Amino acid sequence: MCGIALIVSGIRIDTSWLPFDSTSSTRKTEKLLFSLDDLKAALRRRGPDSVCAKKLLLQSEENLISSFTDDGVSSSERDNADGIHTAKLHFFGATLQLRGINPLVQPLVDASGNFLVYNGEIFGGFDLESNCNDTEFLMRTLGECCSCGSCSAGHCVECGKSSVVGVLCTIKGPWAIIYWQDSSRTLWFGRDGFGRRSLLVHWPTEDDSTFLLSSVSPVSPVQLATEDETLNRIGCFGYWEELPCGIYSLHVDVSKSSGYLVAQVKMHEYANSMLTELIKWDRISVEPSSEDLKTCSHKLSKGQLSMHLASSESVPNETGSVQSSIPGPAHILLDALKESVLRRTSLYTVYQAVTSGIRQEEFVPVAILFSGGLDSMILAALLDKCLDPNYEIDLLNVSFDGHLAPDRQSAKAGLSELRRVAPSRKWRLVEIDADLSDLVFETSHVVSLINPANTYMDLNIGMALWLASGGNGWVSDANISDNDHARIKYKSNAKILLVGSGADEQCAGYGRHRTSYRRGSWLGLHEEMRLDMQRIWRRNLGRDDRCIADNGKEARFPFLDEDVIRLLLNMPLWEVANLDQPIGVGDKKILREVAKLLGLYEAAVLPKRAIQFGSRIARESNRKNFGSNRAANQASAGSVRINNRKSSFC
Ligand SMILES: NC(=O)C[C@H](N)C(=O)O
Description:
Shape: globular
InterPro entries: Asn_synthase, Asn_synthetase_domain, GATase_2_dom, Ntn_hydrolases_N, Rossmann-like_a/b/a_fold
Keywords: Amino-acid biosynthesis, Asparagine biosynthesis, Glutamine amidotransferase
Protein name: Asparagine synthase
Low-confidence stretches: 72-76, 222-235, 311-324, 645-650
Bound molecules: asparagine
Number of domains: 2
Radius of gyration: 25 Å
Structural class: alpha+beta
GO molecular function: asparagine synthase (glutamine-hydrolyzing) activity
CATH superfamily of the largest domain: HUPs
Helix content: 25-40%
CATH topology of the largest domain: Rossmann fold
Largest sheet: 7 strands, antiparallel
Number of helices: 21
């Protein structure tokens, strides 16, 4: 994952056009809460391959704006002298390079003076060669876009060129971007429609005109030093917000009356009807008839069938003519998930494989955040089908209660099942054992990573993800035996991590889905699931991205692939889940069928367990911060804000 940021000063920015409240916490100061070195350090952890910053200066002179890159000699900055006003756009880019064959340093600046910092992956929408770096591709493609500033569709009606909005909406895959289009004097920024990459914003206010964007909230090392200072820092919550998913522009102009540089932030509609449909997340078939429930899994709509037939392999029969067997919904989903895993792991050359000098037999390109539960087992079995058979696969499992944690036990059982279904693959279960009381500094660090999320539940999940993705643990010593006592230290170097996010939201895996079904039947369930999908960026993905990326790793979410989302949404809800059936059967019903198709019969019946409970971090944190599990439950510990209590981790 990369780290990107931008600091804008010297422009009077009007945010009143935004369709949501953009009043960041007001502080009567123009001073940043952190140094630029703090910012760079936080970004570097996300993008360790290269870190660079570039400054763009804009100057107003009689209704004209001139721009130039600051080369460190800023003699030409003459703010307010002779009615000249100067604005600064300070771009930061730290790159975790996973694609291409030549090294890449962000920010990219092209010959036309356009600037780009980008944290994302193009998995579809454009045809990219397997050796092509997607950041470079995007820079070229954006450089060819129309700059008239008034085209709101995918293409400009005047010149026929693609618009910036059009290009961004075409990307299939996760992205967060900051792009300066010099010819139109417009800053573009945004995140993909599901928020699969973090981007935080500090909107300018009347008292604090600075406008900031950053993948992560920086922390100055001194702030970590003492209890009071840590609490102070927690008091800074509210400075950053998750940028609501979307595409924004900020066109810079010179005010006729004052001569100041001014700009309005606008949010743009996605110029892609498929994407708009997905984001609306409307399902056609929500309520089954009793007949539907009887024939469930046998009927497919024409649309689903044609979508599948287009992508599935046709099998010649004995007479040589080509036939397609009619697949059930689970088969279709299985194919789509496999495609999704393939795009995320095997279609594009992994950059480090070419350059980093790691011996090929030691190179592990992909790991899985692994609890041994239904979602991670499906990902593991599919990865086995997509990845070169020579590569080992690391299964990263975190426990705060040694071998007793439920997730550790299911991980071991899962490993045995995977060895059964894929015996020739080398699977490596990485046991990451943690003790919360030893992790004082680390906890403090994760508090800053989850910002602006700020509850104990966020912290527990963030901690578990941060440690798991760090990959620092123990593996069984194959030379001795496969038992608990013969373990050796091991650190996973895989840069790509498959994560099961999005499976519970789309397939009714959460306990609250049962509550909404009880209360509101199928429609109630549908509404709850839609709510989950529409707020996943705010509640989960930004936080998870920041905690995982801090280890210099990139999370990839096969269940949140556009084609997978579309397929699941096109299915009747009763094919996806049936909450009249018991736990472990009707929740995520379709994924359980997928698991069976993959031969994963034990995983197919496992109940859902959230990472904070499965790893037992919630229990440890409850004891530590609330005295006991019981006291924590009484206080609804998960939703308590960290800054509402004097934290004992400080
Ligand atoms: N800019 C980035 O997010 C990294 C780029 N997608 C790469 O793999 O190299």
